[in-house]
Amino acid sequence: MLRKWWVVAGLGAGLLIGLLGGLVGGGNYRATAILQVTSDSPDSNRVNQLAQSTAALAQSAGVLNEAAKSRGVAVADLRLRTTARSEQGTDMVEVTVSGASAASAMADANTVAEQVVANVQARSTGQLEQLQKGTEEAVTKYPLRDAEAELARRQSLGQSVGAAQSSAINSGTIVQVLDRADGAESLGLSPLLSMLIGLVGGGLVGSGAALTLNRGRLPLRGNEDIATLAPELALTSSRPATQATANFLGSSDRTLTVLALPGAETAAQQIARRSVAVGQERGNRVELVDAWEPGPNRFRAFAANGDEGLRQVVVCPADEACLDLAAGQESMSYLLVATAGTSLADVTDVAAALGTDKTDAIVV
Question: Of 65, 145, 304, 318, which sees the most CB atoms within 10 A?
């Protein structure tokens, strides 16, 4: 009985300390906007290089000066709060800015992203203007005395300039805002996460046993818990649904199956529709297959896709019937969608039923 009360006391003290730490520590925020870099080059290494260059551009003096002027903040301050990185193997660049409030962090991140796009467009326009200026100088200077020869020279110059302009336009890099920062995360520990940490620490102090008390049934707070407790299912981006779509479109898989755990039905359908829209915007043939209700449509959703040029995004509940149909499919990747409060065990049980390492999970 004495040992039991030590455990209870340790857990209570840990919860209290964790709660106080969470309430005191949550005063700073960060928000992320995502850029997409496209190029006509089929070389994936070239796309990676362009994404890395765009990440460097987001932290350059030219971009930050304009962004700071637009936001009415000091350049040095914005520079300290801004980071950018390219997603390895994708054409996405994350621009992250921290701020004293969620609203200011989101506004700063979106402004920096917009200035990157404007900077790239200005460079392209400047190249064309320089080419036009050089053409005008070539036409007006050193004319030939012979009228026919001069006419032929101007025609040749026009053809060369037209080809050069077309090449400059087609070979240029296009950068656009793929996903604006529409939310911000606290850089301090949330009360729930702090209480969980306090729970574990208090249990260790009290008896050394709290770490193993029903760990799998603890409710998930967000994607950071997936990364900590089930890293094999975690996505590294601050926009995991966007990353899952990019991973699917960049793979050889022909089907992405979005499985909704209880409570996440609406979010799963929204993510599936967004994935289809992004795929179509990138020039892919992608269709949404709704396998929500039992019946022939569900069986057709998981039947072999005979159209090699067509990719599918299937959405269905993570129930036994859908899992039996989805498990073991070739050329298929999976995205599990859960809500905050879903237990870790429920998520890992579904992943185990699918039996593949091509499974990711997100908390919405």
Answer: 318
Q: Residue 226's Cα: distance from chain center in Å?
A: 16
Q: What is the mean pLDDT of the chain?
A: 79
Q: Is the pLDDT of residue 342 over 60?
A: yes
279-303 burial, b at 16+ Cβ within 10 Å, e below that, comes to beeeeeebebbebbeeeeebeebbe
Say if CB 288 and CB 273 are below 8 A apart.
Answer: yes
Could you give the strand order of the β-sheet that contains 286-290, starting from the edge strand earlier in sequence? 286-290, 311-317, 255-260, 332-338, 359-363
pLDDT, mean of residues 160-185: 70
Which residue's entry shows tokens 């336009």? 169
Distances (CA, A) of 277 to 185, 271, 280, 281, 312: 26, 10, 5, 6, 12
Q: Backbone dihedral region of 177: left (phi > 0), alpha (psi from -120 to 50 degrees) or beta?
A: beta
Can you say whether the dihedral through the CA atoms of 34, 39, 45, 50 is positive or negative?
negative
| pLDDT digit string, tens, across residues 141-150 | 556 566 666 6
3 contacts: CB under 8 Å, gap ≥ 6: 207
* Euclidean distance between CA atoms 303 and 313, whole angstroms: 13
- Long-range CB contacts (within 8 A, 24+) of 169-172: 169/124, 169/128, 170/40, 171/39, 171/40, 171/41, 172/124, 172/127
Q: Say what the pTM is.
A: 0.49
Mean pLDDT, residues 40-63: 84
Res 70: pLDDT: 94
Mean pLDDT of all residues in 199-212: 55
